[in-house]
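Final report, Chapter 2: Outcomes

The project's central promise was a pipeline that accepts a single protein chain and returns its three-dimensional structure in a standardized token representation, suitable for archiving and comparison. That pipeline is now operational. To close this chapter, we reproduce one record exactly as it appears in the project archive, with the input sequence first and the structure output second.
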Amino acid sequence: MNHYYLYEKTAELDPASYPVRNHYVPNDPLGLVNVAGAGVVAASDDQENARRAVAYLLSPEAQQYLVDQTGEYPVVDGVQPAREYDLVPLESLSPPDVELADLASLEQTEAMLQEVGLL
């Protein structure tokens, strides 16, 4: 699961009392790094506003908000991860060589998240 789901689930709890932790497993599917992206669709009727939205998401202010409020990793230099999320440095991770397209079953993902109580 994505690391920030744990932060969301435990936001109102004492993390020490919750029996779940994030573990970073090298060269294993458990260590997958899943990158979210944003872009402008060529067929967009309003490319200028779409570009402005993407530029905002990449601004230091928006990045800091995402880091502080959700525990996301920043993608902009100079934005520091919030300490309460205890993120390991992104460059220290060694994810497996996996094609994300091979993991594209939304139905299976939703079923697993429901099974563990995260959805």
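Archive annotation: The radius of gyration is 17 Å.
This record, like all others produced under the grant, will remain available to the consortium after the project formally closes.
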